[in-house]
Amino acid sequence: MSQRIRIATTSLAGCFGCHMSFLDIDERLIELSEKIEFDRTPLTDIKTLGHCDIGLIEGGMGNTENYELLREFREKCDILVSMGACAINGGIPAMRNSFTLKECLETAYVEGVGVTDPQIPGDPEIPLLLNKIHPLHEVVKIDYFLPGCPPPAEMFWTFLDQLLNGQPIEFTYSQIHYD
Amino acid sequence: MNLKAATRLGGRIGHFSIDGVRLPFREGQTIMAAAMEAGVYIPHLCYNPEFTPHGSCRLCVVRSNGRHLAACTTPAAEGLEVESYTDELQEQRRELLQMLFVEGNHVCPACEKSGACQLQAVAYYCGMLAPELTYFYPQRTVDASHPDIAIDYNRCILCELCVRASREADGKNVFSIAGRGIHAHLQINSSTGKLKDSDLEVTDKAAHVCPTGAILPRNLGYNIPMGKRPYDQKPISLVGDVADHEESS
Ligand code: SF4
Ligand code: SF4
Ligand code: FES
């Protein structure tokens, strides 16, 4: 059993869409499950990250907790993969980079429609937002990039299949898109 | 023989080759113009056969006699042997594309031009998976003052096609590039700097030549389903430039 490739996944400033697209490989998940096993991922209940062969990360880096987790993934995963537009360039959430953080927080928590008791949340339990959303490769070394919002299921399949078989990673034209 | 055919044949002065394929060229033709006419694709963004070559995007750079040359500004010559689709040049193009992507805010998932964008299509053709550089995240304001056309300056790649089209085809001179270095930016030649106070009309050539989603005719966004947009199924080398498809979208 320990021969199986260990994979961890996580979502930082992501929407979980990349995970859903990964699951879109459908029944091929069964075939895959004979070759891989999951460590910490939103699909398992494992709370602490162990040493893994592959780490798949969706979402950009938007707050201090994202930063900590990203560093930990880099430390513990031999191969780290940026999956999806958000991990690659911040994606749609990075549109907030056009505004100051103060403007964003005030719009949501002070001036927001239907807001009662307007105040910007400040409990220390809540991770602080960074001034800007950042792509993952600005913080740690990334080994592979899977573009798309989300990357198509076929891209996940091609990537894992070729990687597990030790082949060079090559995508077809229709598998590569940024939207 | 009619006059048109005569000039075409008469003007043909020799042959050169791209990646080993022999192509004819006419008097005064650049490598790019001759290649395009023969249906051989060389990646390009700032080149549009209707306007004076510009030489700013550098994507068309090819190799000949150990030198790198911009195909859009270098004249074809008898016996010239040109390399274009090599690993080295494609790698260089991917690097240039990465620079263009990190310099602006190319949020393709939220961009109306996605799937019909020449910048994106060339990046697909060159196999760029991700811009692995540090992002600039510019904060330029969007100009939505004009009733028919909007400009998102954060997607402008300074190809000057709108500048050339407005000047050469529309005779209006609506656009210019101002500033230096990384501060270079597109500027509207109107008293307020706003599009609404310029002479630009949606029927102008300049409103339809932008290879990215910077200049957009309004109220047309997302009107083509995914899968049916120009570059969804086939690469730009087969589909052609975005300006040729603009009218239909
Ligand atoms: S202009 Fe093109 S490359 Fe830029 S965001 Fe829009 S679709 Fe993407
Ligand atoms: S607005 Fe479009 S056409 Fe004009 S310079 Fe920028 S990218 Fe080129
Ligand atoms: S097409 Fe030649 S430099 Fe842009």
Q: Can I get a quick summary?
A:
The complex is a heterodimer of chains A (179) and B (249). Chain A is α/β, with parallel strands linked by helices and 179 residues long.
Report on this model:
The complex is a heterodimer of chains A (179) and B (249). With 179 residues, chain A is α/β, with parallel strands linked by helices. Chain A has one domain: Rossmann fold (3-Layer(aba) Sandwich), CATH 3.40.50.700. Chain A contains six helices and seven strands. Chain A has a five-stranded parallel β-sheet with strand order 2-1-3-5-7, sandwiched between helices. A two-stranded antiparallel ribbon of chain A has the order 4-6. The longest helix of chain A is centred in the middle third of the chain and has 13 residues, at 64-76. Chain A starts with a strand and ends in a 15-residue tail after the last helix. The model of chain A has no long low-confidence stretch (mean pLDDT 96). Chain B has 249 residues and is of the alpha+beta class. Chain B folds into two domains: 3-85, Roll (Ubiquitin-like (UB roll)); 90-220, 2-Layer Sandwich (Alpha-Beta Plaits), CATH 3.30.70. Chain B has seven helices and ten strands. Chain B has helices at 3-10, 31-37, 87-103, 118-125, 161-169, 236-239, 243-246, and strands spanning 12-18, 21-26, 61-64, 67-70, 81-82, 142-143, 149-152, 175-178, 185-188, 215-217. Chain B starts with a helix and ends with a helix. Mean pLDDT of chain B is 94; it is low at 1-7. The A-B interface holds A 82, 85, 88-92, 94-95, 97-98, 132, 134-135, 137-138, 142, 145-147, 149, 171, 173-174, 176-179 and B 101-102, 105-111, 114-115, 120, 123-124, 127, 129-132, 134-135, 137, 139, 154, 226, 232-235. FE2/S2 (inorganic) cluster (FES) binds next to loops of chain B.
